[in-house]
Each structure stands twice: as structure tokens, then as C-alpha cells.
Amino acid sequence: MSSIKIKNQNMGIISYYTGFIILIVTALMTIPILTSLLFREWNPLLDFIISMSISTITGLALMLYGIKAKKNKANIQWKHGFVVAALSWILLAVLCAIPYRLSGNAMSLLDAVFDVMSGFTTTGVVLTQDLDHLSNGLNMWRHLLTFIGGQGMIVLALSLLGKETGGAYKIYAGEGKDVELVPNVKGTSRQIWKISMVYLIIGTAALWINGIIIGLQPVSAFLHALYIFESSWSTGGFAPMTQNIMYYHSASYETIAMVIFILGSLNFGLHYAIWHGNSREIYKNIETQSFFATSFASSMLALLWLSKIDAYSDAVMGIRRIIFNILSAHTTTGFGSVYARQFALEWGDFGIMIMIIVMLIGGSACSTAGGFKGLRVGIVFKGLIMDIKKILSSERNMRLYKFHHIKDYILEDGAIKSSAIIICCYMTTFAAGTILGTYYGYPLSSSAFESASITGNVGLSIGVTAASMPAALKIYYIVAMYLGRLEFISAFALIGYIFGGIKKACLSKLKH
Amino acid sequence: MFKQIKTLIIITVFIISFSENVYADEADEIIEINSLIENAAELDQKKVTVSGEAVGEIMNRGSHSWININDGTNAIGIWMNSSDAQKVKYFGSYKYKGDVLKVSGIFNRTCKEHGGETDIHGITLEIQETGSGVVEQMSSTKIAVAVLLAVLAASLTALFLIETRHK
């Protein structure tokens, strides 16, 4: 096959599947359209019709361009999968931002893209203005985006595939997911959605009843319940009101949300195993062991420190505020039960340091959570122990080291190396964000806190993220959220693909 | 002598009343919510006055209720008598501009009664400005663009379906 033909075929495959994913996510705009109709919000209705039309045209145009490659049954290779994942996220971030911009609640398209990327990546930092006067349509869209982003747009699209497509796993893996619940990707994607939908019904009902008890009107209690569930389960951190979770003034509401976000931060494979009667998995799994160890240690350290500096005058209030915020940070949710600036003003440097560490560690792999994940921390930690033991034991003593994650795995150097590389990538992104923050004049601790929150897709803010912050910092944060969520590889593949294409084009021009 | 005593009494009364006014002015001085958060340690347990739009809805908890107000710099919860809270008729949302409230009360950096929340326990409430419904302005250009794009998208969908079914 000629190189031009191969190139066209590559472009065709990427174009077709990117268009397909865009169309599926675009179809979701019918939900805010119906919401706007129901609440008679005419301007948001028009905003969503415009956005849906533009997105449909884009998606269909891409599919039409690539339909020939699809009909030729061209094989999806790893590079296609990663590029489709990375490219569809970028295009969707722009297309889904149109209603934000048209509503006037985002001060620029950059701010709108920032908020959409924050939603998709389940980060939860907000640049949208005047949240308290947001339409129901736009609120529905914000929370829907974070809910879909938690499961993954590609997971959604693959679960709706008409028939099993060869190579679909490669697109699925491109979104930073690798769990195989059933032997095929379509089935796995559907299982992920099934788990999420069951929790959606239970969680929303629990929050709805609690909302009515704490004094919300039934209709708004339902909407708040739905939004807070979507945000908690996807470890997003968006809330419909400016005060975030503090709006409700309720320990029970916070507790239900906390249970949901802890569940959301666990691996879908773990949920699936427990649902199928393997409840012992919760104790045996390296990720849950790692999560509970780091949660316990960080909560205890924060409690000790904040009682030492007398931040909270009694134990009950200390436990309620500290445990909630630490777990919200660790699961990368980002609900804040204190004001953003209170972290900087009242938690002290040690408190901020603990928050930074747990935000970077994050939740479980193949969950809705961000961060470099408990699995990788567990593997690297076990690898370290393994190396020490190897040094101390006799050279003739050959022993296999294992870890348990759904099933038993032999701890190999390859797994340790790849985990360490991803951790290094996160740390580099975090460091670069911190340096950029300090360059723009923010204090070191605030820059580090915000950078960890962005890189780990957490969403807690110490006050740096605001519409008035420099555009370069907004762009960097968008990139960091995106890299953190896709776990770098897909984004690197896209960059490599683009540069490879440019290089080839330049070389062929030089030859001619 | 009597005249001097009279003058002294008048001056004393004037000084006392003036100093009371100064004190009253300090309590009445409206503080931005962000300033409260920034200076929480100094203002903790002090009487403060804030002014902002009531947003969301009232959350009745028996004899007392929560009302959240937003002054444009930030938002905070006000814990007040339910009878006072009932005076608030409009709450800010997409369709309503909420009543603007002036609330005086005790600011708590970490409220013991409410699990360490940062809140204000309201003592007096004044409705400075009554809210109202917001009339949506629809732009005819926006309607035209929406219709045009919807027709374009529908046409392309039809073209796509023909393309996929024919070949």
C-alpha cells in the first residue's frame, strides 16, 4: 500500500471514531434542552440548540470524512486509539463550552473551555460567574459533563457501539482505563455504566430525601440531589451554588456525599468483584489497602496538626471539617466544607502540605478519580520493599513477589518502572504548575496547592483559580487537567502523531 | 455656677451620645463577606453587619432557618429566627433577583453550634431592596442563528444516513 494511501486510511480511522464520540456526547445535549423546556428557560434553550447543531455538524463531517476507511474495515492500531481519545477530548472541550459562552456566565471562550475541561476531567474548579443565578439547563449540563467525564466519554461511546468493533480496546485504553470486567470492551463499558446507574438511583434518592428533611423544596431537593450525586460519584466537585457543599449547612448531607465520593473513587473492577460476591476483594486489593493506609495517616496527621495550632476549638467540629476535606482531596473530589482562603489562612503550611500529598496520590486506577493513583503508589512501595529484601537475602534465594489487584500479579520490574514513570510525569506537571504560579506572583504554598489540585484533578482551590488570573496560567491548568486525566500517554501520542505528520510533510516537500 | 454645671452636663451628654453613635456606626458598617473570611480570626465572635442578595431558598430547621446571602464577593449562611426568615420573599435564581438583606449578627469563624461552620447568627434583619422576577430578553438574531444551524445539522444528518445506507 502506498504511503499516501496509508496516511489517508490513518486519518480516516481517526476522523471516523472521533466524529462518532463527538456525536454521542452531542446527543446528551437533549437532556439540558428538555430541562430548559421544562423550566421555560428560553435563552438557554436557544444556546443548547445552537451548540447541539454545531457539534452535530462537526461530528458528522468527521464521520463522513472517515467513512471510507471504516467501510474498508481498516484495523485500529494503538496509535489510532490513543490519538482518537486525545483528539476527541480536545474537540469536545471546545464544542461543549459553547453553551457556557452563549449564556454569558463565562467571561471568555477560554474560561468556558476551562470549565468544561474541569468538568470532563472531574477536577471541579470553576471560572463560571454568578453560579447562584445559573439556569437549570446550564447547571444540568455542567453536572452531566462531570458525570460523563467520570465514567469517560469514550466508555459511553463504546457502550453504544452497534456491534463489537475490532480494536475498540485500543480506544478504550486511550482514555486511561484498562480494566476488563467482561471479555469484550463493549460489555465492559456497559458494565461500568450499569454500576454507575445503580448508584445514581440509590445516591440521588438518599440525597433527595435528606434534602427535603433539611428544608429544601421537593423539586429543588431533587435537582440538588442529582447534581451533588453526579459530582460526588464522578469525584468532580462541582455544585450548583457558590458555597459548594457549605450551602446545605448539613452534616448528614455532607456524610452522604462523602460516602458517594469514596465509592466513586474505587476501581470499577472492585465494584464488579464485590457485586459478584467477592467481598474479600475489598481487604485484599492493593489499591484499597493503599487508600485506607494513606487516608488514615493523612487524616490523623491533619487532626494532630490542626489541634496543635488550635484551628478548631473542639474535637467534633475538627473531625467534621478535617476528615471531610482530607477525604475530598484524597478521592480527588474537591468539595470544600471550608472557604478556599481558609486553607491558606487557617490550615498552616503543614496542613497545606498534607493536602498537596493526598491530592497528588488520588484515588483508584480505572475509577472516576484522578491523581497518580493508589495502585501505582502500592506497586512502587512494594517494589521498594522487594529491592531491599533482595539486597538483604542470599543471591541464591529466588523468591517471587506478588501483589493483589482483582487477581494475583507477579511484581515485575516492568510494572514498577511504568508506575514510576507515570508518577514522575505527574510530579513534573505539578512542579511546572507550581513554578508558573510563583512566576505570576502567587505565594509558593498557594501555587503548590493549586497546582496539585489541578494536576490531580481534585478541584479544591486556595484562591488562585479565578476569572482574573493570567490567561497563560488558565491555559497551563487546562493542559495539566487534560494530561492528568488521560494519564499522559494518549496526549503524548497525539503530540507525536502531529509532529510525525509535520516532519513527514516537510521531508516530502524537501524531496520534491 | 449653675450655668457652668448646665454647660458641663450638656457637654457630657453630647460626648456620651456622640461616642455611642460612633460605636453604633462601627456595628452598622457593612463588611464584605470576603473581608470576613480574610479577617476571620479578628472578627470571630464579633457583631458584624453584612448586606447581600438572598440566594437559593430558605431552609427551615424548626425555630430557626438558614438563609444564604451573596454580596458579589462571596456567599455566607445566616442562621436566624424562622419568623424573621419568613419576611424574605424573593431568592436569587435564574428567574428571580432576590431580596437584598442587611443582616447584623455574630460572626463565627468556626461555629460550635454548627459543627465548625463559618456563619453569622443573625440578630436583626432589614430588607433593603425587594427582589423581583427577571424578564428574559430574547434576541431575534439568536433565534435566526439557532433555526439556521438546526436546519443545517438536520440536512447533514439526512445526507449521512443516505450515504451510509446506499453503499
What would you say this structure looks like, in words?
The complex is a heterodimer of chains A (512) and B (167). Chain A has 512 residues and is mostly helical. Chain A is 70% helix and 2% strand. Chain A has helices spanning 3-27, 30-38, 42-71, 78-95, 98-103, 109-120, 136-151, 153-159, 168-174, 185-213, 218-233, 251-264, 268-275, 281-284, 286-308, 315-330, 340-346, 348-361, 374-392, 413-439, 444-455, 471-486, 489-511; strands spanning 402-405, 407-410. Chain A has a two-stranded antiparallel ribbon with strand order 1-2. In chain A, strand 1 (402-405) and strand 2 (407-410) form a beta hairpin. In chain A, helix 11 (218-233) runs parallel beside helix 12 (251-264). Chain A is globular. The two termini of chain A are 21 Å apart. Chain B is an alpha+beta fold and 167 residues long. Chain B has two domains: 25-133, OB fold (Dihydrolipoamide Acetyltransferase, E2P) (Beta Barrel), CATH 2.40.50.140; 138-167. Helix content of chain B is 41%, strand content 35%. Chain B contains five helices and seven strands. Chain B has helices spanning 2-28, 33-38, 40-43, 82-85, 140-166, and strands at 47-61, 64-70, 75-81, 96-97, 100-111, 117-129, 132-133. In chain B, the strands form two sheets. Chain B has a five-stranded mixed β-barrel with strand order 1-2-3-6-5. Chain B has a two-stranded antiparallel sheet with strand order 4-7. The chains are: A mainly alpha (512), B alpha+beta (167). At the A-B interface, helix 3, helix 16 and helix 17 of A face helix 2, strand 1, strand 2, strand 3 and strand 5 of B.
Summarize the structure.
The complex is a heterodimer of chains A (512) and B (167). Chain A has 512 residues and is an all-alpha fold. Helix content of chain A is 70%, strand content 2%.
Sheet bearing the most strands of chain B, described? 5 strands, mixed, barrel
Question: Radius of gyration of chain B, rounded?
Answer: 27 Å
Rg of chain A to the nearest angstrom? Answer: 23 Å
Could you report the average pLDDT of chain A, rounded to the nearest whole number?
90
- Class per helix and strand makeup of chain B: alpha+beta
